């Protein structure tokens, strides 16, 4: 009988130890980057370290100049993580406009690094976005910037490089040549992190890119943008994305808004819900545009909202309230 009691006590201790170890492992892997690790491409999907589509969801900061710049603070990152429960932020570094990277490269790079470092510390993913419509004209500057970022963040799974935001009228061959040049530069220093390339016509014509995709490089995805209430961004645009995915193209929605393509216009809840359901159906990661208090439909903040987070419902626009609710419901820990 004594032996049975000792054996039972030993098994109980072993069970407690295993439970504690399992609990510690679960608690340790509490942030999105700990849960998912490096993002990889598998077929037409972006997958995590376990081979599962993580479906990251979060917010895009506005242009890193003008009014949206004031929200590039560590406290805003903390609030987005703790209150909005984002798993992703996008840092939209302005390039050509007055005050952008071409005029102030050190200042802009330092701003992006400061916010990226905070996001990494909080365990979420970060899209470093070359927010340029004419990146093919600024290829040498882009190489310098992404070389610096790749050297700094190699070995950090949280980082995603978006090398050209919304080409406007450039052809896919032009976009492809630019992208290959940037991919080659980044891969000299960072061989693993996800790289997102642009697609023609403001990141909408992904079906054209799918006919002649970039080959020979690992972990390359394609950006796809839409504005949910825009009358021209409905079934026809979803079909373009579905065609691209059917041809094997992995997509990442690095920017979308609840309004229309000019950032303003109507906020149509029915159309927005249709897009939300479509993204969930296809397990597509996304960043919503945008964190600013500018008076427009897609802005999530009311004029004068604090630059340190701590936003009350009165600080949020209809878009802000809607997106916060969606993130809190969908990004279940």
TrEMBL record:
It comes from Parapedobacter defluvii. Pfam families: Cellulase (PF00150). The lineage of its organism: Bacteria, Pseudomonadati, Bacteroidota, Sphingobacteriia, Sphingobacteriales. Residues 48-294 form the Glycoside hydrolase family domain. Belongs to the glycosyl hydrolase 5 (cellulase A) family. InterPro entries: GH, Glyco_hydro_5. The keyword Hydrolase applies. This is Glycoside hydrolase family 5 domain-containing protein. SUPFAM superfamilies: (Trans)glycosidases. Keywords: Glycosidase, Hydrolase.
